[in-house]
Design goal:
Blueprint lengths: L1 H14 L7 H46 L3 E3 H14 L5 H4 E10 L5 E9 L28 E2 L2 E2 L14 E11 L11 E10 L5 E5 L21
Parallel strand pairs: 1-8
Antiparallel strand pairs: 2-3, 2-6, 4-5, 6-7
Helix pairs in contact: 2-3
Length: 232
């Protein structure tokens, strides 16, 4: 009995070097961390690209909707635009992570342009790259920040003229600033800010000033101060 066991052990020992039955499983175990890392990195990159595209589309949506309003722009119209932004961006937590700033830019009556009105939505505390409501005033000096119009990143200059409103018209500018939060913690990238700026000329609007026909209170308006930082 003991001899037969010894012989069985010897036989098994001779066969062991040629045994490949578990090689595939072992190789997979070694490769799994690399495959998982590549897969997660690809997923993160794809998600980042999709969110970047959506941010640009949301900026376009805000500018286009605000520019489409006929007759005159009212506080209720602004509110509808912002509610649309909240719903359109709900899939990426837009209200909690972003800020959209809609500015109406017109001629200041001299040799420059001004922000006639400006409204915002979102809980992210950021300011417009073009200035607050009233920027531009009525001056013609070089101190007028919007003397040469705007570029995607800020006021234009004499060396690099920017986009300006049409004669007797207005230009709607929508800026979106969004905090991107990675899907897989900070393994591949840290939180970062995405920016998008879109402009649309106002179409067939006779009255450019912002009206308030429903006597909406300041608390209910979409003002751009810190008191109106809200995801709702």
């Amino acid at each position: 009995m003991q001899l037969s066991r010894i012989l069985s052990i010897r036989t098994a020992a001779r066969r062991l070097p040629a045994d490949r039955s578990g090689v595939a499983l072992i190789e997979f175990a070694f490769a799994l961390p690399l495959l998982l890392t590549i897969g997660l990195a690809g997923t993160e990159t794809a998600n980042y690209a999709i969110v970047t595209l959506r941010i640009n589309q949301l900026a376009m949506l805000a500018a286009d909707n605000a520019a489409r309003v006929r007759a005159s722009m009212d506080e209720t119209d602004v509110n509808e635009v912002m509610v649309g932004m909240r719903f359109a961006g709900s899939g990426i937590a837009f209200g909690q992570r972003a800020r959209v700033i809609v500015s109406d830019i017109e001629s200041n009556g001299a040799s420059g342009y001004r922000i006639t009105w400006q409204r915002c939505f979102g809980a992210k505390n950021v300011a417009s790259a073009f200035g607050v409501e009233g920027t531009g005033g009525s001056g013609t000096s070089s101190a007028n920040a919007l003397r040469y119009g705007i570029t995607p990143t800020g006021p234009a200059t004499a060396a690099v003229p920017g986009t300006v409103p049409t004669t007797n018209g207005a230009l709607i500018v929508a800026e979106v600033r969004y905090t991107y939060v990675p899907l897989v913690a900070s393994m591949f990238m840290a939180n970062r800010e995405l920016r998008a700026t879109q402009t649309f000329p106002v179409r067939e609007r006779a009255q450019q000033s912002l009206t308030n026909t429903t006597n909406m209170s300041d608390a209910s308006k979409r003002l751009c101060d810190t008191a109106h930082l809200s995801a709702a």
